[in-house]
Amino acid sequence: MSPEEQKAQEYRERAASKLFSGRVDFLLSAPQLKFLPEPTVPEIAFCGRSNVGKSSLLNALTGRKAIARASVTPGRTQELNFFEVGEPTLFRLVDMPGYGFAKAPPKVVEKWKRLVRDYLRGRQVLQRNLVLVDSRHGLKDVDREMIKMLDESAVGYRIVLTKADKIKKSELDKTVAAVSAEAKKHIAAFPRVHVTSSEKGMGIAELRAAVIEDALGADWADS
Ligand SMILES: Nc1nc2c(ncn2[C@@H]2O[C@H](COP(=O)(O)OP(=O)(O)OP(=O)(O)O)[C@@H](O)[C@H]2O)c(=O)[nH]1
Ligand SMILES: [Mg+2]
């Protein structure tokens, strides 16, 4: 990055932090498609395996301790949870139920899967998906299944590694390389893999700016 680009990035990150430190409100929980809010503003969705850290990342991005419930029990988030950012509302963040949760009854898993799939396929205002992947585990088959679904749905996505504080730098580098190599086969436009820790704040400022850019467009910070 050139010094000018570095400066522009710092400016975007500061603006993003300011936006997220303003209004962020929980809007509603949708257990079924018919309960979705009116598609009036852009949406960014957080998906990934159960327990990967979706709710925690949402808390970290918004600088709130527990706006999205985070839990030690996998499968805690069971509905699509909508959060509104900005006053008036500029965009929404959507905390999704985790996929690949083996301990839930198959019927329940099937219900979540259908809800997520229908949302991803049919939501006109959905601008980007964040696909969260545990830094320690890398891509698993359930993630690949999800990515395939996203490839079919034509909604772009970013891959976000979570819990980066839990492993050594050398291990982290290996996961980043492996996930990047695989992601490049799918996402021509977004070959970068974000590395984050909601616990330590790593990568959060940068992801904030990226999320707002996805929602509002590249020149959002200039207006
Ligand atoms: N060390 C560390 N722990 C984390 C991090 N992010 C999340 N966790 C922990 O991982 C567990 C699961 O986090 P959640 O945010 O509830 O995960 P989720 O993806 O929303 O889970 P479901 O809603 O069940 O799908 C919690 O115990 C969090 O405290 C992180 O960056 N670092
Ligand atoms: Mg959750």
Model description:
GO terms for molecular function: GTP binding; metal ion binding. InterPro entries: G_ENGB_dom, GTP-bd, GTP-bd_ribosome_bio_YsxC, P-loop_NTPase, Small_GTP-bd. Necessary for normal cell division and for the maintenance of normal septation. With about 220 residues, this protein is α/β, with parallel strands linked by helices. The protein has a single domain (about 5-220), classed as P-loop containing nucleotide triphosphate hydrolases (Rossmann fold, 3-Layer(aba) Sandwich). The chain has helices spanning about 5-20, 55-60, 105-120, 140-155, 170-185, 205-215, and strands at about 25-30, 45-50, 80-85, 90-95, 125-135, 155-160, 195. Strands 1-3-4-2-5-6-7 form a seven-stranded mixed β-sheet, with helices on both faces. Strand 6, helix 5 and strand 7 form a beta-alpha-beta unit.
How many structural domains does the protein architecture include? Answer: 1
Number of helices: 6
Estimated radius of gyration? 17 Å
Main sheet record: 7 strands, mixed
InterPro entries: G_ENGB_dom (IPR030393), GTP-bd (IPR006073), GTP-bd_ribosome_bio_YsxC (IPR019987), P-loop_NTPase (IPR027417), Small_GTP-bd (IPR005225)
Function: Necessary for normal cell division and for the maintenance of normal septation.
Keywords: Cell cycle, Cell division, GTP-binding, Magnesium, Metal-binding, Nucleotide-binding, Septation
Family: Belongs to the TRAFAC class TrmE-Era-EngA-EngB-Septin-like GTPase superfamily. EngB GTPase family.
